[in-house]
Amino acid sequence: MHKRRLGSLSVSAIGLGCMSLSHGYGRCDPAQAEKVLLKSLDLGYDFFDTAAVYGFGTNETLLGRILKPHRQSITLASKCALYGDSSGKRIIDGSRQNLHRMCDESLQRLQTDVIDLYYLHRKDPDTEIEESMHALAELKQQGKIRNIGLSEVSSDTIRRAHAIHPVAAVQSEYSLWSRGAERDVLDTCRELGIGFVPFSPVGRGMLTGKIRSTQGFSESDLRRNMPRFADNAFGHNLAVVDQFCTLAKELGHNPAQLTLAWLLNKGDDLIPIPGTTDLEHLAENASASEISLTSAEIEQIETVLHPNLIKGERYPAAGMREIDSEN
């Protein structure tokens, strides 16, 4: 897989979002998670994305255990400020003390002495972004992290943060059916020379065309509470996705590959991080890095699957209140 620049890093054009290996989409068998991580290395993935909150630390522990022998040849990204307390409640704390604590704990779980890219997972509404950035800059000065990132933030927050210390990457949801980043954030990142890392680039699996019903979602699957998968929206959204799947077939690609190729063809500063627990899908996603699209094809894709055609917000109300980014 060819490489792209991300701050001071050179990473595979497509990274691996690791959340689903421990969290969010039902249980993943640990043995299967290990197979996915090891196979990803064979396929050329070298950019692995995790967070302290994923599985309340178990995701970082998994990556630390499996990837430690390969540490010198991979890039590890993790996130702070968002975590689960002893009762499982999600807490956002961007204070200096908490960010230092979380970084030390993540380093231990990841079995490494430095994290290549460390994101502020959510902006804390009770802590000024300047305080959080000063804390992250201290961690970098101490040699515990190499690059600073932000997740789900607005253009204004990016500018304020970047004025304190250069930001290497901004991560947010960005896909054919979630294009809020195009309103302002992408332009701001490009103006400031900041890379952009789209998560959920395949619409939490919906844009593959393979999800025909929500009935199979487990009780722990976060999509059960997401508006776009709700009973009053799912059928409508599926019909839109089916039109996209028809176009993908006409263009000679499967839908997941086409969604990733669309992102990669939008700019060489984009590094999407699809997640999967399936080895076949892992290989299909990797091959998307070799697909070139014409401007006419991109326009056709964006017309068939436009966010204005989609029903529902990308998060439930509680999730929308957590984010600082353009929706």
From TrEMBL:
Oxidoreductase is among the record's keywords: yes
Pfam family, one: Aldo_ket_red
GO molecular function, one term: oxidoreductase activity
Gene Ontology CC: cytoplasm
Domain (NADP-dependent oxidoreductase) ranges: 13-304
SUPFAM superfamilies registered for this protein in UniProt: NAD(P)-linked oxidoreductase (SSF51430)
Keywords assigned by UniProt, alphabetized: Oxidoreductase
Signal peptide interval: none
Keyword Transmembrane helix assigned: no
Database matches in InterPro entries: AKR (IPR020471), Aldo-Keto_reductase (IPR050791), NAD(P)_OxRdtase_dom_sf (IPR036812), NADP_OxRdtase_dom (IPR023210)
Family matches, as Gene3D superfamilies: NADP-dependent oxidoreductase domain
The protein's name: Aldo/keto reductase
